Amino acid sequence: MEKCNQCIKCTVQQCKHHHQSRNFCTLDCIEVGTHEANPKMDQCTDCTSFDLR
Q1: What pLDDT, on the 0 to 100 scale, is given for residue 2?
Q2: What is the DSSP letter of 33?
Q3: Residue 48 predicted with pLDDT over 80
Q4: pLDDT band at residue 36, thresholds of 50, 70 and 90?
Q5: CA distance 34 to 41
Q6: Staple partner for 39: which of 8, 15, 32, 44, CB 3.0–4.6 Å?
Q7: Are residues 48 and 31 in contact, defined by beta-carbon separation less than 8 angstroms?
Q8: Residue 25 is inside which H or E element, if any?
Q9: Burial code of 9-44, b = ≥16 C-beta within 10 A, e = fewer?
Q10: Contact yes or no for 10/18 (Cβ under 8 A)
């Protein structure tokens, strides 16, 4: 059975760390980063732990 970290909610089904049947991540922790020099909105941040399924 795939483990589920209920402290990290996730809806990105294309990530290999997304739980197969629940909207949570399977990692113990994630890293959040940005693709902007000076982020001002949530759209400027990224889960850098993302790995394509």
Answers
A1: 79
A2: E
A3: yes
A4: very high
A5: 10
A6: 44
A7: yes
A8: strand 24-25
A9: ebeeeebebbbeeeebbbbeebeeeeeeeeeeeeee
A10: yes
The residue extents of the domains of the chain are 5-47
Residue 25's beta-bridge partner residues? 5, 18
User: In a 3-state reduction of DSSP, which class is residue 52?
Assistant: strand
Q: Which two tokens stand for residue 28?
A: 């113990």
Euclidean distance between CA atoms 32 and 43, whole angstroms: 12
Rounded distance between C-alpha atoms, residue 32 and residue 35, angstroms:
10
To which residue do tokens 């294309």 refer? Answer: 14
Interval 8-21 mean pLDDT:
96
- In angstroms, rounded to a whole number, what is the distance separating the alpha carbons of residues 2 and 21? 9
The answer to whether residues 26 and 49 touch, using CB atoms and an 8 Å cutoff, is no
